[in-house]
Amino acid sequence: KAGVTQTPRYLIKTRGQQVTLSCSPISGHRSVSWYQQTPGQGLQFLFEYFSETQRNKGNFPGRFSGRQFSNSRSEMNVSTLELGDSALYLCASSLEGQVGEKLFFGSGTQLSVL
Amino acid sequence: KNQVEQSPQSLIILEGKNCTLQCNYTVSPFSNLRWYKQDTGRGPVSLTIMTFSENTKSNGRYTATLDADTKQSSLHITASQLSDSASYICVVRQSGYSTLTFGKGTMLLVSP
User: Fold this and answer.
1) Does the beta carbon of A106 lie under 8 angstroms from any beta carbon of chain B?
2) Residue B109 confidence class, pLDDT cut points 50, 70, 90
3) Does A103 sit within 8 Å of B31, measured CB to CB?
4) pLDDT given at position A64
5) Most confident stretch, A37-41, A93-97, B102-106
6) CA-to-CA dists, residue A108 to A2, A105, B13, B94, angstroms
7) Which of B43, B46, B102 is the closest to A102 by Cβ?
8) How many whole angstroms separate alpha carbon A22 and alpha carbon A71?
């Protein structure tokens, strides 16, 4: 069974640009969540999608948005990039996103904003 | 405010030695606590999950403990191997909520 796939693996952008990251969950998983990981803050929850609907949202500005498609694949978009957005962006999937379910993480997209 | 604090921040041990990583949390009400291992350049992988009623759970050479009264958890690694070199992250879920609170991790380096 294929794991969670995130593309691209690395990305370099400049301030003010926008970026779209992609996540393909494990087959059969309907919940997809996104996280930002930085050396200073660690992992921080961005948002979670289930059946094409955003179910939960973390404390990030509106420049961070996402969506989920009918095949459970998800995309995350960051507009008007800032230097502080440089981070590893991780996507995780689970069956239903219920309490106690194990999250399966992708290898992430390393975003560098210059 | 829900917080998860991990210690030490980093640790270097010799191959074959044991070590214990600590996790203190203030998340309330508590639902469960997971320990994740994150290799460099990879996403985190779940090692164990602890619920309120569980005190100890093992996964091979990894043993997690939970004291829900003092809100502390530990991850003990026995007979360390070079492949144990990674970041270990403690994650706590609040009861009734889907969001998670992450610790900043302990970076473990196992030296030959």
Assistant:
1) yes
2) very high
3) no
4) 97
5) B102-106
6) 15, 8, 28, 25
7) B46
8) 13
Residue in chain A closest to B5 (alpha carbons) equals A42
Give me the DSSP letters along B57-110: EEETTEEEEEETTTTEEEEEE-S--GGG-EEEEEEEEETT---EEE---EEEEE
Q: What is the pLDDT of residues B5-33, one digit of tens each?
A: 999 999 999 999 999 999 999 988 888 99
Interatomic CA distance for residues B90 and B74, integer angstroms: 9
CA distance B96 to A95: 18
Tell the residue number behind the tokens 């660690």, with chain if given.
Answer: A42
Separation in Å, CA B16 to CA B19, B26, B40:
10, 33, 21
Q: Does A60 touch chain B (CB under 8 A)?
A: no
> Tell me: the pLDDT tens digits for A68-106?
999 999 999 999 999 999 999 999 999 987 777 889 999
Task: Report yes or no: A7 and A108 within 8 Å, Cβ to Cβ.
Answer: no
Taking a C-beta distance cutoff of 8 angstroms, is the pair A110, A10 a contact? yes
Residue A47 tokens read as: 């948002």
A/B interface, count of CB pairs below 8 Å: 50
| Identity at A80, one-letter amino acid code | T
What are the residues facing A31 on neighbouring strands?
Answer: A50, A94
